[in-house]
Design brief:
There is one protein chain. This protein is an alpha+beta fold. 34% of the residues lie in helices and 30% in strands. It has a four-stranded antiparallel β-sheet, covered by helices on one side. A hairpin with a 5-residue loop joins strand 3 (65-68) and strand 4 (74-80). The protein is globular, with a radius of gyration of 12 Å. The protein starts with a helix and ends with a strand.
């Protein structure tokens, strides 16, 4: 993963959450060892077309794992840095 990949994935996650009509989107970057996770969350529940719409191809192509948050109001993508 490079910075451009991460920026594009973050943008797609942001757009997916914005599509719900939420007034704000909270973006989070967390790291643990060789893993990095980008999360975008809002105040409204995502429907399937938001979490698996056109941007999902980009997210799933660059992230090692991705999914929806437990409360259904956000999406995340995880990257693993290989030595």
């Amino acid at each position: 993963m490079d910075d451009l990949d991460a920026a594009q994935v973050a943008n797609e996650l942001f757009l997916a959450v914005m599509a719900t009509g939420t007034p704000t989107v909270e973006m989070t970057l967390s790291t643990a060892g060789t893993r990095s996770r980008i999360t975008a969350a809002g105040s409204r529940e995502l429907v399937l077309r938001h979490s698996h719409g056109p941007g999902f191809t980009i997210v799933s192509g660059w992230a090692s794992m991705s999914g929806t948050c437990a409360d259904g109001r956000g999406v995340w993508a995880q990257f693993t840095v290989k030595d």
